[in-house]
From TrEMBL:
<keyword id="KW-0717">Septation</keyword>
<comment type="similarity">
    <text>Belongs to the SsgA family.</text>
</comment>
<dbReference type="InterPro" id="IPR006776">
    <property type="entry name" value="SsgB"/>
</dbReference>
<keyword id="KW-0749">Sporulation</keyword>
<keyword id="KW-0132">Cell division</keyword>
<dbReference type="Pfam" id="PF04686">
    <property type="entry name" value="SsgA"/>
</dbReference>
<keyword id="KW-0131">Cell cycle</keyword>
<protein>
    <submittedName>
        <fullName>SsgA family sporulation/cell division regulator</fullName>
    </submittedName>
</protein>
<dbReference type="InterPro" id="IPR038658">
    <property type="entry name" value="SsgB_sf"/>
</dbReference>
Length: 174
């Protein structure tokens, strides 16, 4: 992830499209596969750890798929040339709503309000830099709850097993 280079191009890529982006939630199902996903689109506040005072509002898409039941995919700057994708364990978001969770590349914790709304902070670190994101806590809580309805917490292995079984069957069929 090239956080530094994406910081430089954020403002220009966002200025024209902000009015067309808003909070939305959707479920989708891949026909014939029984795979489902939950998508939540929202704006997050991005701060650079290396460039104090740098701040941007970035569109983010949080995706939970039953085909990868342990993970959440997050796409920042969706549709822009500087789109960034991170994938991490969904338990980090759930646990981060109540206490600090994670270490290393991804750390999540609950925090103070921005504009009167409590935030969930997500720190992403790579060799190219570190960014701290602030997402609306209420929206993240809804994301966690709805993802939990698709695959219950502690039940991920059931969905992972079916994916592995499908893969083995496809390999045997050649």
């Amino acid at each position: 992830m090239r956080i530094q280079s994406s910081f430089r191009s954020l403002r220009s890529s966002l200025d024209g499209g902000r009015e067309n982006w808003g909070l939305s939630h959707q479920f989708s199902q891949k026909a014939g596969y029984g795979r489902r996903e939950y998508i939540a689109d929202m704006f997050v506040h991005m701060h650079s750890a290396e460039h104090s005072g740098y701040f941007a509002i970035v569109p983010a898409r949080f995706i939970y798929r039953t085909s990868d039941p342990y993970a959440v995919e997050v796409r920042f700057n969706v549709g822009a040339t500087c789109e960034q994708v991170w994938t991490f364990v969904r338990d980090l978001i759930r646990d981060g709503l109540s206490r600090a969770a994670g270490f290393g590349d991804v750390v999540v914790w609950p925090g103070a309000s921005i504009g009167g709304e409590r935030q969930l902070f997500i720190q992403l670190a790579s060799p190219d830099g570190t960014a701290v994101l602030a997402a609306p806590e209420g929206e993240m809580r809804a994301f966690v709850q709805l993802a939990g309805r698709l695959v219950g917490y502690g039940k991920e292995y059931i969905h992972a097993k079916s994916e592995i079984d499908d893969l083995v069957a496809n390999i045997r069929e050649g």
